[in-house]
Amino acid sequence: MHRPRRRFGQNFLTDAGILERMADTISPAPGEAVLEIGPGRGALTAPLLDRGAQVTAIEIDRDLAATLQQWPATQDGRLTVIEDDALAQPVANFRLAGAGPLRIVGNLPYNLSTPLLFHLTDDRDSVSDLHLLLQREVVERMAAEPGSRVYGRLSVMLQYRCQVDPLFDLPPTCFTPAPRVTSAFVRLRPQPTPPIPPLNERCLADIVAQAFGQRRKTLRNALASLLDAAAIEAAGVNPGDRAERIDLAGFGRLARVLGQSQTPPEA
């Protein structure tokens, strides 16, 4: 039996009822391409295969990957196991030739959840949806609204990229070893059309990072290196507000003003 490795943040989901509920929620169509991040011992892989999914599983732990590579499903092409770090390659690299966008599932290591969330949603055209198991606190941040104490950079950037739907919580007793936190299962659906008018996402990321990096400060002070008070007002935002009061539309307007300020004048 594989012993969980702390350096990989391994907490294996062992509750059979929860695993079936997750697989039913994902509900892959026969032959549908599913990219599984961190399959571990294959507890969710098996019910996905039972439902007809064609699974590509990325596992960083070489021992776990080697065990999965012995499964019969690898011989008939229903399961492909890749020993690698999920952060190492763009999601688009895992799309099957001629297949539609990927469905992504995974029990993400809690210590890497934020970089993985940004990485997995970078190329929205390659992804139809994501069903992820995360620390409940992270899911709360992902779905938070302006004014919430947990509303922040993750909330704004993910809600720009995706519709965020928390599904259900999982207590620590569902895992081996039991984590010290409650977990949550969440669905992300990439937005085919952004929920706010088109903008330079790099400008949005810069504005949001700067605003929440100094969240106790007003925007007048937090954004001073990017926009002055007049520019903030030109975006229809109060320079005296703090970041947690600004909704996605407000951050979008600030990003557009920043983009305009960075556009070189025509000759």
Automatic annotation (TrEMBL):
It is an enzyme of class 2 (transferase). Pfam families: RrnaAD. It catalyses: adenosine(1518)/adenosine(1519) in 16S rRNA + 4 S-adenosyl-L-methionine = N(6)-dimethyladenosine(1518)/N(6)-dimethyladenosine(1519) in 16S rRNA + 4 S-adenosyl-L-homocysteine + 4 H(+). InterPro entries: KsgA/Erm, rRNA_Ade_diMease-like_C, rRNA_Ade_Mease_Trfase_CS, rRNA_Ade_methylase_Trfase_N, rRNA_adenine_dimethylase, SAM-dependent_MTases_sf. Its EC number is 2.1.1.182. Keywords: Cytoplasm, Methyltransferase, RNA-binding, rRNA processing, S-adenosyl-L-methionine, Transferase. GO terms for cellular component: cytosol. S-adenosyl-L-methionine binds at N11, L13, G38, E59, D85, N107. Residues 18-192 form the Ribosomal RNA adenine methylase transferase N-terminal domain. Gene3D superfamilies: Ribosomal RNA adenine dimethylase-like, domain 2 (1.10.8.100), Vaccinia Virus protein VP39 (3.40.50.150). It is found in: Cytoplasm. GO terms for molecular function: 16S rRNA (adenine(1518)-N(6)/adenine(1519)-N(6))-dimethyltransferase activity; RNA binding. PANTHER family: DIMETHYLADENOSINE TRANSFERASE, DIMETHYLADENOSINE TRANSFERASE-RELATED. Specifically dimethylates two adjacent adenosines (A1518 and A1519) in the loop of a conserved hairpin near the 3'-end of 16S rRNA in the 30S particle. May play a critical role in biogenesis of 30S subunits. NCBIfam families: ksgA (TIGR00755). Belongs to the class I-like SAM-binding methyltransferase superfamily. rRNA adenine N(6)-methyltransferase family. RsmA subfamily. This is Ribosomal RNA small subunit methyltransferase A.
